[in-house]
Amino acid sequence: MDTDKIKALQEDINNAKHIAFLTGAGVSTHSGIPDYRSKGGIYNGVAESPETILSDDTLFNRPQFFYNFVMNNMYFPDAKPNLIHKKIAEISNKKGTLITQNIDTLDTRAGNKHVIEFHGNLYNIYCTKCHKHLTYDDYAQGYLHKDCGGIIRPGIVLYGEAINPATLEKSVAAMEKSDLVIIVGTSFVVYPFAQLLAYRKPNAKVWSVNKTEIAASGINSIIDDARNVFLKINLK
Ligand SMILES: [Zn+2]
Predict the structure, then answer these.
(1) pLDDT tens for residues 21-34?
(2) Which residues form the Deacetylase sirtuin-type domain (predicted)?
């Protein structure tokens, strides 16, 4: 554990006027939600690639396969927010915005009022035919909407679909007003999410807290489990 670096991060948090958090799966693994692409993650041992399974093509042309996959591998309705969600919520509510790739709603449930769900969320469930919003319990009964026979889907951005333009705009605005950017629990390889960094202020400080080094230059990194780091970080 790099105590000096954690102290420096704490100091940057104390001094920041507005902070943009950019987070990924590594934040939710402590809530029992598997990391997408890591060893033991949900794609491990699945014969088809995530790009194929989680696509609009599969949703409409192989709806039962899509449904089985998301129900069995992606929904964890009993998961609870952990210490990292809570610390980020506390800081964001005072002076920050969280832009997350996570689709599990744990940040909102941790009380974070400034959350941008870059890829949507699994619990925004609706019928693709009549557009009626449905609950997780409705979806858990099957993928066909009882009222109209349409295919039900989660409001997550699938491969082959674009990021919601309003979401993109809000995310860029958050980056542009932040003097500190903290990347947490993501290997930062998914585009266009990783491109958000390009919208930071020229003098913004950038930190990453991740188990592995991320591919971005000129940033301070703490190579560690995010929980170990956020245990020591506090809102002053
Ligand atoms: Zn319907």
Answers:
(1) 999 999 999 999 98
(2) 1-236
Is residue 6 within 8 Å of 222, Cβ to Cβ? yes
Q: Are residues 106 and 188 in the same domain?
A: yes
Distances (CA, A) of 159 to 50, 162, 232: 8, 8, 37
Task: Confirm whether 80 is domain-assigned.
Answer: no
Residue 18 marked as a ligand binder: no
* Nearest-5° Cα angle at 40, 37 to 45: 80
Nearest to 63 by CA among 136, 154, 148, 133: 154
The residue to which tokens 């409705």 are assigned = 138
108 with 208, same domain?
yes
The residues carrying an active-site annotation are: 119
Question: How would residue 37 be classed by pLDDT, with cut points 50, 70 and 90?
Answer: low
Residues 90 and 147 in one domain: no
Which residues have CB less than 5 Å away from ligand 1 (the ion)? Answer: 127, 129-130, 145, 148, 150
- The response to whether 133 counts as a known ligand-binding position is no
Question: How far, in Å, from the CA of 124 to the mean position of ligand 1?
Answer: 14
State pLDDT tens for residues 143-188. 999 999 999 999 999 998 999 999 999 999 999 999 999 999 998 8
Count of CB atoms situated within 10 Å of the CB of 180 = 22
40 and 29 housed in the same domain: no
Ligand-binding site membership of 148 (annotated): yes
